[in-house]
Design goal:
- With 90 residues, the protein is mainly alpha-helical.
- The chain has one domain.
- The protein has four helices and two strands.
- It has a two-stranded antiparallel sheet with strand order 1-2.
- Helix 2 runs antiparallel to helix 3.
- The longest helix is centred in the last third of the chain and has 17 residues.
- It is globular.
- 31% of the residues are buried.
């Protein structure tokens, strides 16, 4: 179960600031595969894997690297920007 979910401007669920690395990783998996009712969204998945990696998820580092190989450089930059914004504002 994810700790408090917030909603992004796009209406997509975002984890609360207290989410663990494992919770962030699991949510990233949903976005990277389009499963569990989540849209297929590589930018959000990369952002979540990045945050999960920062919170100690080794798996997230691997998935983030693999996913980045499937994305355009501007998409990776946007995912990194969104991760910084989430860290700054929650």
């Amino acid at each position: 179960m994810l700790a408090q979910l917030q909603v992004s401007r796009e209406g997509l669920p975002l984890p609360g600031l207290d989410a663990s690395g494992d919770e962030l990783f699991r949510l990233g998996l949903l976005y990277s595969t389009g499963q569990g009712g989540a849209p297929l969204d590589y930018v959000s998945a990369h952002m979540l894997f990045n945050l999960a990696a920062m919170r100690g998820s080794v798996e997230a580092k691997i998935y983030r690297k693999e996913l980045a190989g499937e994305m355009a450089s501007d998409q990776v930059a946007e995912a990194q920007r969104q991760a910084r914004e989430w860290l700054a504002h929650g």
